[in-house]
């Protein structure tokens, strides 16, 4: 293991990486333009709703819905009207309507344009799913294309949970195996350890892999090895520690895993965490401000938190060395109180709840 660096020079912004100041500091000219755009939008929306109320289901009306949805993909009512127009274009009842290849392509292209405007639009993603459910032909080719589209959107925003959910659905339709999905999350995590969404998706897949795999313990061992590599490389990255805790719960809560195996895995993790803590403390000794200085405690903090958690799990499972583990838990929490003053009351409450203070 080696000392891990922390990310520097971050620019903190509001949601979607848009500075709050950029919205507040509008000139009168810019505000006037926005007001004019708002009027045009309301006028278009009113026209569309008038057509809908009159029962107009023409190609021209559909074009108007596309025009509005490219500007505001979150307008549920206009998406619903667009689907009514599609139903009217067919010769069957709505419940049995199928999208011909040209219609499906048009809808997928249009909704993709809407998603470029707002990548987290619920109704736009739903419309794509709605079209996939009604494909008349070309299903396999379309599904592969959709997986590629998901990859592009996740390249832009790896935490877009709408896209992750949609990809999960597409992968199911395309017959992608849990193992293949697992490899996909690993590729995403190798590109960026901080990808919470990829870890979340991995946790969902793990259940099926562990349950139906030939060796559940082997699967969990591989995952512990995988996350251990990440925590050594980026010890201050909370996403990996979240997944670490999830894996430990998967081990200790599984009634099919013998107590002896659970304790063996936990002993292994205590050894790894002790080593990581030792390495990070040695690294901080080279820093004149030492481990308790602002920022420098982050590299060791999460390893200590997890070490206390694993030791507590061992005690709860009735290990033979409970007294030694209890003393170590106490030492770890006292260390955390020193290096993480902002959360010292939490650590003190943990000691009290464990009867160690």
UniProtKB/TrEMBL annotation:
What transmembrane ranges does the database entry give?
Answer: none
Catalytic activity reported: geranylgeranyl diphosphate + L-cysteinyl-[protein] = S-geranylgeranyl-L-cysteinyl-[protein] + diphosphate
Keyword Transferase listed: yes
Which terms does the record give in the GO molecular function aspect? Rab geranylgeranyltransferase activity
Q: Which GO terms describe its biological process?
A: prenylation
Enzyme class comes to transferase
Q: Which UniProt keywords apply?
A: Prenyltransferase, Repeat, Transferase
Family matches, as InterPro entries: Prenyl_trans_a
Q: Give a GO cellular-component term.
A: Rab-protein geranylgeranyltransferase complex
Q: Which Gene3D superfamilies match?
A: Protein prenylyltransferase (1.25.40.120)
Q: EC no.?
A: 2.5.1.60
Q: Which family does it belong to?
A: Belongs to the protein prenyltransferase subunit alpha family.
Q: What does this protein do?
A: Catalyzes the transfer of a geranyl-geranyl moiety from geranyl-geranyl pyrophosphate to cysteines occuring in specific C-terminal amino acid sequences.
Q: What is this protein called?
A: Geranylgeranyl transferase type-2 subunit alpha
Organism equals Pinguiococcus pyrenoidosus
